[in-house]
Design a protein that fits this description.
With 167 residues, this protein is α+β, with helices and mostly antiparallel strands. It has a single domain, classed as Copper binding periplasmic protein CusF (OB fold (Dihydrolipoamide Acetyltransferase, E2P)), CATH 2.40.50. Helix content is 39%, strand content 29%. It has 5 helices and 6 strands, in the order H-H-H-H-E-E-E-E-E-E-H. A 5-stranded mixed beta barrel has the order 1-2-3-6-5. The longest helix is centred in the first third of the chain and has 39 residues. It is elongated. The termini are far apart.
Length: 167
């Protein structure tokens, strides 16, 4: 038994074993990062597909290519919206996003709504308010809001790619 213990101790103290274990660890970390990238890409693509399939149900008309207004990577932002409220039908809002897409935002009982540092209610939201929404996409192409911030008056929401246009 003591001989086996000593042999195992020699194996784990050798530089080659340490290098092999580090190599295995690096491969495992790389695989985890790759898997996370696949998961994020899949969720973004799923939202884009669901948004397109449910466009007529959410907005009552068929889209054309110019109305879709997908971003540079051809997928809408799945986890939020930045823009103006164009319609309020509680518990949903329709927000015209910076890229001129209309997004349906679902407000739940756990949705936190703030204006500056003050908590407000859904009754305080008005059409033409500039808002930032952070949430989770659902299977119908809508955003389940977790947090909504109403932007102060006079603080317009910047259009997309504004930095690139100014250069």
């Amino acid at each position: 038994m003591k001989k086996i213990y000593e042999d195992l101790k020699k194996v784990f103290e050798s530089k080659m074993t340490v290098r092999v274990l580090y190599g295995i660890g690096i491969v495992i970390v790389a695989l985890l990062i790759f898997s996370a990238g696949i998961t994020v890409g899949f969720r973004k693509a799923s939202f884009g597909r669901a948004w397109g399939e449910n466009y007529e149900r959410n907005f009552g008309m068929m889209p054309n290519r110019q109305m879709l207004g997908f971003g540079i990577d051809n997928f809408p932002n799945a986890h939020g919206a930045v823009g103006k409220i164009i319609k309020i039908t509680l518990p949903t809002l329709i927000v015209q996003d910076r890229d001129n897409t209309e997004k349906v935002v679902l407000i739940g009982s756990d949705t936190q709504i703030q204006k500056m540092r003050e908590n407000i209610t859904t009754n305080d939201l008005k059409v033409d308010d500039s808002i930032v929404v952070i949430g989770t996409p659902d299977a119908q192409g809508q955003i389940e809001a977790k947090f909504i911030r109403v932007m102060p008056l006079g603080m317009p929401v910047p259009p997309p790619m504004m930095g690139a246009l100014i250069k």
